[in-house]
Amino acid sequence: MRPISYSRATAVADAVATVVADPTSDFLAGGTTEVDLLRQNVLLPRRLVDINDLPLTQIEDRPDGGLYIGALARMSEVADAAGVQERFPMVAQALVLGASAQLRHMASMGGNMMQRVRCGYFRDATSPCNKRDPGSGCSALEGFNRGHAVLGVSEHCIATHPSDVAVPLMALDARVHTEGPHGRQVYPIDDFFLLPGETPHLEHPLEHGELVVGIEVPGLPMARTSMYMKVRDRESYEFALASVAAAVTVEDGAISDVRLALGGVATKPWRARRAEEMLHGAPADTESFRRAAREELAAARTTPLNAFKAELAQRTMVRVLETLTHPERQS
Amino acid sequence: MSAPHIPSKAAAAAVLPERGPDPVKITLSVNGTERTLEVEPRVSLLDALRERLDMTGAKKGCDQGTCGACTVWVDGRRVLSCLTLAIACEEHEVTTIEGLAEGDELHAMQSAFIEQDAFQCGYCTPGQIMSAVALLKEGHASDDAEIREWMSGNICRCAAYPHIRAAVRTVRDQT
C-alpha cells in the first residue's frame, strides 16, 4: 500500500469540504472494499477522510411505512432492525446473505452503494481495464468471464455489480441522498448506478466530494411478503451468480402488482421492467412466470463461459415467483 | 438534516487537519489497556497488533478480508483487523484473543476448543474463537446450520469445522 495521510471528520459539512477541496482525498467508511483495493494499488488516494464518526447511523421508520437508513448504519444493524425484517424482508435477507458476519459489522450501507466490482482484471492493478484505466481495453471480454454480467454490458466493460442489498432497493424504488459541493441531492436508485457504456470508469452520477448520507425506502405494503433468493457456487460467503428480489400481489388468480430486480447478472442492480410489464394482469402461473423471465433475459449478451447465467437467472425468477404465489408447493 | 454546506471552489486549505503520511502517535485501547505507538496511517490494526504491540494472537492469513484469521472485536463487534486501519481505532475498544482469558482461567470457548479438538494446525483458531464467542452473543447458534452460516467468515484449511461446531454447541449449552 502506498503511504496515505488521514483526517477524521465529525460533521458532514467538514468531511465534504475537505474532500471537495482536494482531488486526491477520498472518504473512508467501513473500508471493506477500500482498504483491500488500497493495498492492491487499485485505488491511489493521497489522503483518507474517515467519516465513521458522522451522525449518519439512523434507521428510521417513516410515516408512509417506509424507511430512512443512514449511510453509516452497518449492514448487520439494518438486517437486525425490526422495521426492516417485518416490512422489507427481502432487504434483510439480501443483507444477511452478503459477505460474512465480520464484514457485515464493518460495511456501511452507503459504502455498499459505492462498492467496486469484483472483476479480477479490475482488481489486479495491471491488466488492461477500462474501469481502472480508461481507454486501456477490457481484459474480461476475451478472458475468464464466468462470473461476469450478461445484461447492461458494453464492449468496454462486462463487470458484474456485486451488491446484494442494492437489488431489493432497486425493486423498492429507493432513493439515495447525498451531500456535496452543491448541497443535498436525491437520486432515484436506478439513476444512481450508471451503465458502463463507453465510460465504465463512471459508476455513479456523483461529483468528487459528494457523500452518500442516506437511503430512503418508500413504503410498499406488499413488500411484507417479499423475498430475496441468491444462487452461488458455494452456500455461504460468496457473490451471486444470479439473485432475485421480488414482491408480488395476486388478486383472483391474476397478478395485480409486482416488483422484480436481478443481481449477479448485470452491470448494475437490475430492475426487471420487461418482466414486470408482462406479469401485470397475467395469471399467476408458471407459464406466465417463464414467459416474463424469458422476455427479461432476451437482451442477454453472453460469452461461452457465462452463457449459463441467462438460463439460471430465468429459473431463479420463476422459482421466486412460484414461492411467493404458491408457497404450499415449495418443499 | 442540517443545511447543506457549500464550500468555496477556490478553497485551497483543507478544513480538517491531516495526519501522516509519516508515522504519527496514536493511542489504542487494547484489552482494556491504553497503548501508545507510532504508526503510519496506512498501517492496519492487524499489523499494529502483531508488529508493534507484540500481540501475535490475531493471525495474518490472507490480508485481504477473506479468511477471518485476523478476527478481533472493535467495540465488542467481531471485525477483520486486516481491513481496519489502526488509526481509525482511536477512541474505540479493541479486544483480541489475548484479552479473552481471565488471568490463568481460559474463556469457556477456549476450553471447549481444546476439549472438542476443534483445530489441527491452529492457525485459524484465534479468529475462530473470537468469532465463535461473538456468534453466541449475537444469538445465531440455534442449530448446526445456523452456526455454519454465521461462522462462514472463518476459513479452516484443516477443515476442523465439525469440531468447531461442537465447541460452539458446548458453550451454547452451558448457559
TrEMBL record, chain A:
It comes from Streptomyces piniterrae. One of its GO terms (molecular function) is oxidoreductase activity. It holds the Pfam family CO_deh_flav_C. It comes from the Bacteria. Residues 1-222 form the FAD-binding PCMH-type domain. The keyword ATP-binding does not apply. The keyword Oxidoreductase applies. This is Xanthine dehydrogenase family protein subunit M. Keywords: Oxidoreductase.
Automatic annotation (TrEMBL), chain B:
Keywords: 2Fe-2S, Iron, Iron-sulfur, Metal-binding, Oxidoreductase. The keyword Oxidoreductase applies. Pathway: Alkaloid degradation; nicotine degradation. SUPFAM superfamilies: 2Fe-2S ferredoxin-like (SSF54292), CO dehydrogenase ISP C-domain like (SSF47741). Coiled coil: none annotated. GO terms for molecular function: 2 iron, 2 sulfur cluster binding; metal ion binding; oxidoreductase activity, acting on the aldehyde or oxo group of donors. CDD domains: fer2. Gene3D superfamilies: 3.10.20.30, [2Fe-2S]-binding domain. Residues 24-100 form the 2Fe-2S ferredoxin-type domain. InterPro entries: 2Fe-2S-bd, 2Fe-2S-bd_dom_sf, 2Fe-2S_ferredoxin-like_sf, 2Fe-2S_ferredoxin-type, 2Fe2S_fd_BS, Aldehyde_Oxdr_Iron-Sulfur, Beta-grasp_dom_sf. It comes from the Bacteria. The keyword Metal-binding applies. This is (2Fe-2S)-binding protein.
